[in-house]
Design goal:
alpha/beta; seven-stranded mixed sheet; globular; binds NADPH dihydro-nicotinamide-adenine-dinucleotide phosphate
C-alpha cells in the first residue's frame, strides 16, 4: 500500500526510507511512512491562503451543509474503511466506533451548527449587555474564524474518529486543517483522507495530511493557528512548551492518557441489576479496542466486601471473550495496533505487578484464535488487584494502554472518592449505583477531577451510551493528567477555533455588525404591515409600532375568567394593596395576549405560525388605567432548508417585542419565533 501525505494540493511522499508499518494481526508489511520532502511552511501558507479564504467566504450553515455532504459520502464508502481497519487489529464492533462513530460525529456537528449558530460567516454569543443608563452604549460578543490553520496531532487508537471529531468543528468554524495521524495506524486515516479529497466536497486547502514526522512545522506556526494534540502526556507537554506555541500564545488543546475509574456503589451487591451492569461495563472497557481507548477503565474501585464477587464475575466474563484474528469465528477481542504497543503494555503491566497482584491474564502464554501469537500484536485481558490502594502509587500513575484494569478496594464512601481523585485528573469516571443520594455525594466529591461522569443504574442502562463513548454534545477532555483540554461539547468545539471579541458601541452599530436587531436601535417603519412580507422581503430592523390600548378592570376580570387565574393581585383590592405592587395589576399573560391583539395582521399572509416565545421578562406592573403599546422588530432571520415532506419553503423570523406604557417605560420584553413563507429557490 502506498502511504502518502496530501500537501499543497498533491499526494506526495511514501519514500522507501520511511518507517515500516505492519498488519497488527499477521505482521505483514503494509507500507512505509515518511514525510521527507514536505515543505511544512508551504503547507501552512497553502492552508491559510487557499483553504482559509474559501471557508471564510462561506456561512456557518454552508460549511455545516458541506460537512453533512461529506459525512454522507464517507458513509457510502464505509466498507472500504472497514477492510483497512481490520489490519489495525480491530474487530468489526471496534471499527464501527472509529468509522461510523466518527462519521456520526460529523453529522452531529452539522446539526449542532445549523441549530445553534447563525447563518452568517461569524457567530454571536450571549445577549446584548446594557453598558449605560440610557441604553445608547451596549456590548455583545461575536466570534470570527481565525485566519490560520489548525494542526491536529492525533493518537493511533482512533484513526478515523480522531480525525473526524476534530476536523468537523474546525472546518465549520471556517478554519482549514492539517491532520497528522499517528504513524502506526496512519494508513487508515490516509485512506479516508483520500476519499475526502477525491470527493471534491471541501475547497482546496481545507484539509491537508501529514503521514510521518511533522518536521519543522512548529517553527512556522503563527498567532492565528491552533494545535490540538491527542497522545501521551510526555509528548504533549514537550510540544506544548515549544517556543512557537508560547511566544505566539497559540491555543494548544491537549488530551493525554488518563487513569479513568469506575466505582461500584456500596449497595450494588451481587444479585442486584447494578452489580451486573458494573461487571458488563468494566469487561467491555477492558476488551473493546483491546483496551486502547483513552476513556477505558484503568481503575476498578469496589467495596472491600464485594472484591471477591467482582473478581469472580469479571473473570467469568473475560473467559467468554476469546482473543484473536477478528475475522475468525467467535473472536471477541482483537489485537493491539502494533508490536511496539505490545512491548509498552507488557512494560506497564510489569511495573504495575511490582505493587499489585496479577489475578487474571498477565502471562505471555495465552490462547490466540485464528492467528499466530508471535506475529500479531496480541495481548491477553489482564486483571490486577491492589490490596493497599492508598499506599501503592502505580495503580494511580501507570497507564497500561491495553486490555488491563486494576481492582482497588474501598471501605467507606470517602475512600472511594479519594481513590477516584488519586488519578489526578481523568477524562471520564463512572459510578454504578441505584442510590441517587450516594450518586450526588460521589459526583460532587469527584467532579473537579473529571471531564465527564456517567452514573449508571437500571433506569438508564438500556439507553445508556456507556462509560467509554465521548458524545458530540458533551465535553470530552479532563483536567490534570488528562491534559487539561476540552473537545466536543456541542458548539463549544466550533468556538474553540474562533476568536471571541467583545464589541461595544451604539445599538444601531451593533445591529449593523451582528445583523441581529439590538434593542434600542432605530426601528425601520414601513406602511406595509410586516406580517404581509415574505421571509425574503423582511429586513432586519423592519418594525411595527402598534396603536395604544388602555387596560381596564373589565380586561382583568375577563382574562381572569377565561384563564381561571384569580390570583389575589388581580382580584383582591386588600390583598393587592398589601402586595409588592400596592394595587391591582393586569395578568402578565394578559399583556402578552393584548400585545398580540395590537400587532397581529389578521388576514391570510406569508406568516404561517407562531411557534414559540423566548427571553420573556415582565419588567414593570401594569395597572387599571395604564395605556400600553407594542413595538415589534425583525431581530433575526434563520433560513430553513425545505424537507421533502414539506409543501412550502419557510424560514424562521425572530421578532424583538417590547411593550411600553404611557410614559414610554418598558413593561415587558420577549422574542417571538414565527414561521414565514419564503420563495422556494
Ligand atoms: P505519542 O504521544 O508518542 O504520539 C501521539 C501523536 O503525537 C502521534 O501522532 C505521534 O506521531 C505524534 N508525535 C510524537 N512525537 C512527536 C513530535 N516530536 N512532534 C510532533 N508529533 C509527534 O503517543 P503514542 O501514540 O506513542 O502513545 C503513547 C501513549 O499515549 C499510550 O500508551 C497512551 O498512554 C497514550 N495515548 C493516549 C490517547 C488518548 O486518547 N488520550 C490515545 C493514544 C495514546 P508518530 O506516531 O508519528 O510518532
Amino acid at each position: 500500500m502506498k502511504i502518502e501525505s496530501y500537501a499543497c494540493g498533491a499526494w506526495v511522499g511514501g519514500s522507501d526510507d520511511g518507517v515500516e508499518v505492519r498488519n497488527a494481526i499477521n505482521g505483514e508489511t503494509i507500507g512505509r511512512v515518511s514525510s521527507t520532502g514536505l515543505d511544512f511552511a508551504d503547507m501552512l501558507q497553502h492552508g491559510r491562503n487557499l483553504g482559509g479564504s474559501a471557508l471564510r467566504k462561506m456561512t456557518i450553515h454552508d460549511r455545516a451543509n458541506m460537512m453533512k455532504a461529506l459525512a454522507k459520502h464517507l458513509l457510502d464508502k464505509k466498507e472500504l474503511f472497514y477492510a483497512i481497519s481490520a489490519k489495525t487489529g480491530a474487530t468489526r464492533a471496534d471499527s464501527w466506533v472509529d468509522i461510523e462513530g466518527g462519521i456520526g460525529t460529523v453529522f452531529a456537528y452539522s446539526g449542532i451548527a445549523r441549530r445553534e449558530l447563525p447563518n452568517e460567516t461569524f457567530a454571536i454569543e450571549g445577549k446584548t449587555e446594557q453598558l449605560s443608563a440610557k441604553g445608547s452604549f451596549v456590548g455583545r460578543h461575536i466570534l470570527t474564524a481565525k485566519h490560520g490553520v489548525s494542526l491536529h496531532i492525533n493518537a493511533f487508537n482512533f484513526p478515523c474518529w480522531g480525525m473526524l471529531e476534530k476536523i468537523a468543528p474546525s472546518l465549520i468554524a471556517g478554519v482549514p486543517v492539517i491532520v497528522k495521524p499517528a504513524t502506526v495506524s496512519c494508513y487508515l486515516t490516509e485512506a479516508m483522507a483520500r476519499e475526502i479529497i477525491a470527493s471534491g466536497i471541501l475547497p482546496e486547502g481545507a484539509l491537508q495530511l501529514i503521514c510521518g514526522r511533522t518536521g519543522d512545522i512548529f517553527d512556522h506556526l503563527n498567532e492565528q493557528d491552533s494545535v490540538t494534540f491527542t497522545g501521551s502526556a510526555s509528548t504533549g507537554q514537550m510540544l506544548k512548551s515549544h517556543p512557537a506555541i508560547t511566544s505566539n500564545s497559540i491555543p494548544f488543546n491537549m488530551e493525554a492518557d488518563s487513569l479513568n475509574c469506575s466505582i461500584l456503589g456500596a449497595h450494588a451487591t451481587p444479585g442486584t441489576p447494578e452489580f451486573d451492569l458494573f461487571i458488563k461495563g468494566v469487561a467491555q472497557e477492558v476488551t473493546v479496542k483491546a483496551g486502547q481507548k483513552c476513556t477505558a477503565i484503568r481503575r476498578t474501585i469496589v467495596p472491600q466486601e464485594n472484591v471477591d464477587a467482582v473478581i469472580d464475575a469479571l473473570s467469568k466474563r473475560l473467559d467468554r471473550t476469546p482473543v484473536g484474528d477478528p475475522s475468525a469465528e467467535g473472536v471477541r477481542m482483537g489485537s493491539l495496533v502494533g508490536t511496539d504497543q505490545v512491548k509498552d503494555v507488557w512494560s506497564a503491566v510489569h511495573k504495575l505487578s511490582e505493587e499489585n497482584e496479577v489475578i487474571y491474564g498477565g502471562q505471555p502464554e495465552f490462547d490466540v484464535v485464528g492467528a499466530d501469537r508471535n506475529k500479531g500484536a496480541f495481548f491477553p485481558a489482564t486483571l490486577l488487584y491492589c490490596e493497599k490502594p492508598f499506599a501503592a502509587q502505580s495503580a494511580h500513575a501507570v497507564e497500561a494502554f491495553g486490555p488491563v484494569t486494576t481492582i482497588l478496594p474501598y471501605k467507606r464512601e470517602d475512600e472511594a472518592i479519594e481513590l477516584a481523585r488519586m488519578g489526578r485528573g481523568s477524562l471520564v469516571g463512572s459510578l454504578v449505583t441505584a442510590d441517587n443520594e450516594e450518586a450526588a455525594r460521589i459526583v460532587l466529591g469527584t467532579a473537579a477531577w473529571h471531564g465527564r461522569i456517567l452514573v449508571l443504574n437500571s433506569d438508564c442502562a438500556k439507553e445508556s451510551t456507556g462509560h467509554g463513548s465521548p458524545l458530540a454534545p458533551l465535553v470530552h477532555g479532563g483536567p490534570g493528567r488528562a491534559g487539561g483540554g476540552e473537545e466536543l461539547g456541542g458548539a463549544r468545539a466550533i468556538k474553540h477555533y474562533m476568536q471571541r471579541t467583545a464589541i461595544q458601541g451604539s445599538p444601531d452599530t451593533l445591529t449593523a455588525i451582528t445583523r441581529q436587531f439590538t434593542t434600542g436601535s432605530t426601528p425601520k417603519i414601513d406602511p406595509l404591515h410586516p406580517f404581509k412580507k415574505t421571509f425574503d422581503e423582511l429586513q432586519i430592523g423592519d418594525s411595527l409600532i402598534s396603536h395604544r390600548r388602555t387596560v381596564t378592570e373589565a380586561d382583568i376580570v375577563n382574562f381572569g375568567c377565561i384563564s381561571g387565574d384569580h390570583f389575589y393581585v388581580h382580584f383582591d383590592e386588600i390583598g393587592a394593596k398589601n402586595s409588592l405592587f400596592g394595587k391591582r395589576v393586569a395578568h402578565g399573560y394578559f399583556l402578552l395576549s393584548a400585545a398580540a391583539g395590537l400587532f397581529v395582521d389578521p388576514a391570510e399572509g406569508p406568516l404561517l405560525a407562531n411557534y414559540g416565545l423566548e427571553n420573556l421578562r415582565f419588567v414593570e406592573p401594569v395597572g387599571i388605567g395604564d395605556t400600553i403599546r407594542v413595538r415589534l422588530s425583525v431581530k433575526e432571520k434563520i433560513f430553513k432548508a425545505k424537507r421533502p415532506d414539506e409543501d412550502r419553503a419557510t424560514g424562521v423570523v425572530v421578532w424583538d417585542a417590547e411593550i411600553t406604557n404611557q410614559d414610554d417605560v418598558t413593561v415587558a420584553v420577549y422574542d417571538i419565533m414565527t414561521l414565514v413563507e419564503r420563495a422556494d429557490t
